[in-house]
Amino acid sequence: MIIPREKYLQQLIAAEGNGMVKIVTGIRRSGKSFLLMTLFHRHLIEQGVQENQIIEISLDNRKNKRLRDPDSLLDYIDSRA
Questions:
Q1: How far is CA 3 from the centre of its chain?
Q2: pTM (2 decimals)?
């Protein structure tokens, strides 16, 4: 079952492209990652954004442990941008 989270998705869409960093907060397992990495990702694709233009990083994933260092994270993002 997918909970659409339309209100939160529309808030993200309304603030899209304003040059500001978006911070999504909430209790554990409330759907923050699903909102961003599924619903908002889908929105971006529907708007014509290419997959290779989207950078998604889960810092809680042990595979990305090195990216918890700010300099390593910046290097990674710069290499993908």
A1: 18
A2: 0.83
Q: What is the mean pLDDT of each run of 10 residues along the chain (81 residues)?
A: 91 95 91 95 96 93 96 96 87
Name the nearest CA neighbour of 79 among 62, 67, 68. 67
Tell me the residue type at 65: K
Confirm if 44 and 17 have CB atoms less than 8 A apart. no
The amino acid sitting at 55 is: I
**Which tokens in the block code for residue 53?**
């233009």
The Cα 45–Cα 42 span in angstroms is 5
Comparing CA positions, the residue from 38, 37, 39, 30 lying closest to residue 11 is 39
Q: Which residues of 44-68 are buried (b: 16+ CB within 10 A; e: fewer)?
A: eeeeeeeeeeeeeeeeeeeeeeebe
